[in-house]
Amino acid sequence: MTRPTAAQPDGTAVPVVRVAHLTKRFGDHTALDDVSFDLPRGQFLAVIGLSGSGKSTLLRLLNGLHTPSDGAVEVLGVDVVHARARAIRHLRCQVGFIFQQFNLVGRLSCMENVLSGALGRLRGPRLGVSTYSKTLRQTALDHLDRVGLGHKAFQRADTLSGGEQQRVAIARSLMQQPQLLLADEPVASLDPESSGQVMDVLRRICVEEHLTVICSLHQVDMALGWAHRVIGLRAGRTVLDRPTGDLTRPQLMQVYQRDGVPVAPETPQPDEPDDHGLAALSPTPQQLIQ
Amino acid sequence: MTTPTNSAERPDLATTAQAEPTPAGAATDKRALRPPWTRNRIVGLAAAAGAVLAIVVSTRQVGVDPQRLIDGWADLGNLLGRMLPVEMPQPSRVVGPILDTLMMAVAGTALALLLSLPLSFLAAANTAPSPAVRAVARAIILGARSIPDLVYALIFVRVLGVGVLPGVLAVAIYSTGMIGKLFADAIEEVDDDVHHAVATVGATRLQAIMTGVVPQVLPSFVSTTLYRLDMNVAASAVLGFVGAGGIGFELYNTLRTLQYQRGLGLALIIIALVVIVERISAAIRASILAHEHSARERRRSRRPARDRPPATGRPRLSPPWTRARLTRQIAVLSAAGLALVSFAGLGISPGALLRAIPELVASIGTFLPPDFASVRDDLGPAIVETLTIAVCATALATALSLPIAFLAARPVAPHPVVYHAARLVIVLSRGLPPLVLALIFVSAFGLGPFAGVIALGLGSIGLTAKLMADAIEHLDPGPRAALRSVGATRVQQATTGVVPQVAPSFVATTLFTLDSTIRSSTIVGIVGAGGIGFITYQSVHTLQFHTTAAVLIVIFVTVFVVERFSDMIRKRIL
Lengths: 290, 574
What we know:
- Chain B: Keywords: Cell membrane, Membrane, Transmembrane, Transmembrane helix, Transport.
- The structure holds two protein chains of two kinds.
- The longest helix of chain A has 17 residues, at 192-208.
- Chain A has helices spanning 55-62, 85-94, 110-115, 134-146, 162-175, 192-208, 220-226, 249-253, 285-289; strands at residues 17-26, 29-39, 44-48, 70-75, 78-79, 95-98, 180-184, 212-217, 229-234, 237-243, 257-258, 261-262.
- Chain A is α/β, with parallel strands linked by helices.
- Helices cover 29% and strands 23% of the residues of chain A.
- Chain A has a six-stranded mixed beta sheet with strand order 6-7-8-3-9-10, with helices on both faces.
- Chain A is globular and about 50 Å long.
- Chain B has two domains: 85-303 and 324-341 and 351-366, MetI-like (MetI-like fold, Orthogonal Bundle); 368-574, MetI-like fold, CATH 1.10.3720.
- Chain B is globular, with a radius of gyration of 27 Å.
- Classes of the chains: A alpha/beta, B mainly alpha.
- At the A-B interface, helix 2, strand 6, helix 4, helix 5 and helix 6 of A face helix 1, helix 2, helix 20 and helix 21 of B.
């Protein structure tokens, strides 16, 4: 499993994510404006920008929660725009999602929370660790060990700190055996130390599992420190798309300009309209019509 | 890129990791794959086993067996057939009793409010003048609610004669016990700083309470009283069973004389009555809550109130007549007016009330001393039967309420139609007083505790399923969204994402149901559905008041013990 920790993964295979001329309008407001990029397997992409620059919209377009006004989205070879509801659901099983608010089931143990990541592959309801097979339990423990929380497996999730909860949430999404991990502001409600640990874990999995990660962020330094590549959005437009290797902090800071005037990268805004990212994961009416 | 492991970065993790090494590979099988046996887990499992044991023993005692259930349902089908087509009674014959029922509920609630206001302040730890006074006030409140209202009515009718007055007094005393407790709890939850701040300016104890406590508890007092009012409508509807006025008298006679078609008509009227009052009371409570909420919002955002009047030259020395104040005044006046109209309509004058009190007090003498000897052989089995009815009914209500609650919770319900159907079941169950159901089921299943279990079980769905559904609706939707994102089905989302989160509140609800069924199970015997109610009824009717006193003591102790028990567990788990 140990792959060379290459700064740039091989871009030879078919891209995991393919976005072409993607535009999304909400009424008069254009949230995303002609965004295009390809994401090869194993790349860690950070999407940065001010609140309202289109980061969350982009992530939601990628798993079919929104339908684009224009352009094309292809994820893991599935045409998200034209796929049927069933295909979208199948796709979502392969796409892990990390929420800003972790969204663990607080009264369940960490172990059971991680196990619940396998529900998409299992039939029937489950309650209690013993209702999952021994193999699954071993895998869950492995994932917990990888995020450094194996020793807290049977502790209740709501007794953990925010950073630890987010790492359990990552272990849960690993249980999905995902090919793509979408993280919507995963560290916005965490202190700097916990943020670093969470980003460490994300980066490590990305490299070890050769997993593709798209992570929206507020903090420029986080993007520089952990991502392979950064896309900067301003008012829905791509204003930056470069590997982190030859990127400097001042260059990155330019993303945070409003009409040419530099603005300090804001502090995380928990008040941002947030329906936990996927509050309405069932297919939208438009999708059902198509 | 070197990414140091987290345990190396954090010393606390590092030491734990060393203390409990969790190596991969060969040692994998030695890792714990099951949760450890913590004390909480053992206690929880023991409690669950105890509950199951209680249910098994109780069902055996009551004689619930599948064959009987199947036969019974067939009989019930027959009975329903005989109830159709519905015969609605002549309006002229029921309008009077319906009004009486409503007015009894209003008058009884008003009296209870008057009684429990002083009592609750004496019973709350932070406003009681002394611990001794507090203990006495708490004891009065507790005593008042440990005897069901129908038992009070049964006795008062014997002492004061048939009519609405005993009904109103029965409702008033029982409600005093119920709302007095809730009031006292609300007072104890008040922010003491405000109360102390008022006291520091040199205010007397009474002044500090009036200025520092009353404004804070007012909204909760109003909503408690309204809630009680709609419970009392259901209660008043059956007081006629024992001759205490209202529509219950009509219903009892109709069903006793086997006029099932007209009986169904009357039952439908009672359901409608209870549901309408419940809706009105719920709407008023919601608007009070909304008002409180918006006031708090305004305070936080420092925005001036919308209905602030324009500033005039002369400073005002009395509060302005804003719309909110006007509404409040009108509401208070019309509530007082409604209470007065009810007393007048029932023909209960202050004089009659005052005369009734010495009569009741004097009658206490005829109850003393309690005579346990005459019922020694019956009392034990009767109270055991009462308890088993309550346990079985609670189990039945919980089992039926669990699925209904999930279907009646908006975010979990599979379809709006299902949601509304489930909510309708809840409303119907709430609208039918348990005693009415018991009377119907006695006709279907025959005399005995089995009818009582079915009646109380079905009658409790309204309470149990509603509380459970509300608990589900108040859950954080985040974990459910996360489970949806891993591809979990609806059922999986519910079992993994909802059940563990609502488990404590479901257990609390079940204990609350037990609290309520134990009270009802002491009275269903009045219509022959088993338990201690039959002995109570017999002893009152044959004027053996010494025996009645003995039975009352047993009921009191039973209800008291069950309430303490359920309170204790609820406090532990919530």
